[in-house]
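User: Please fill in residues for this 141-position structure.
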């Protein structure tokens, strides 16, 4: 498995994983614009045999990162790819703190973030319209 910064040519594969992974996926245009034209955004992909099988993205504001999305293609989950993607992104950006929102019901993702040292800080009611969000933070110690 290779972990690297995303390139414009990765956008269609990232969009496929996005649509397989989220109830309300980002549009192709939103992903394209964030990956290709947003100077504050950093996206990473996991590549296996030349195929993109996972990605994550972060927006950097001063010394903090807001994790926008992390997803792994269904056939490749449970192998540590999500964890390595996030560790790769955090090592590369090397910020003082990271935050994210996650659905309260997404126990797999919440366990993953806790393994990385994120803590539960607050609940944002109806953030997803149909569900509350858990807000988590990671701070450099
Ligand atoms: C959340 C998500 C990104 C995790 O990706 P992943 O690559 O499966 O994550 P990991 O493999 O690092 O961890 C998942 C599980 O596999 C286990 N695992 C990791 N490597 C393993 C291995 N070699 N053998 C067996 N199990 C392993 C982990 O311990 C973890 O177990 P747990 O759920 O009981 O804690 C993925 O499930 C996904 O794409 N979900 C849909 C999108 C989503 O919800 N994203 C988060 C939005 S906030």
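Assistant: Residues filled in for all 141 positions:
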């Amino acid at each position: 498995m290779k972990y690297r910064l995303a390139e414009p040519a990765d956008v269609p594969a990232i969009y496929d994983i996005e649509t397989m992974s989220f109830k309300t996926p980002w549009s192709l245009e939103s992903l394209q614009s964030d990956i290709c034209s947003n100077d504050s955004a950093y996206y990473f992909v996991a590549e296996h045999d030349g195929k993109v099988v996972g990605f994550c993205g972060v927006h950097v504001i001063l010394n903090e990162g807001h994790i926008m999305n992390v997803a792994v293609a269904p056939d490749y989950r449970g192998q540590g790819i999500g964890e390595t993607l996030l560790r790769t992104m955090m090592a590369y950006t090397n910020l003082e703190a990271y935050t994210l929102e996650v659905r309260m019901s997404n126990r797999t993702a919440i366990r993953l973030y806790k393994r990385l040292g994120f803590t539960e800080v607050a609940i944002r009611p109806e953030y997803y319209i149909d569900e509350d969000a858990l807000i988590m933070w990671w701070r450099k110690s």
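For context: The longest helix spans residues 81-93.
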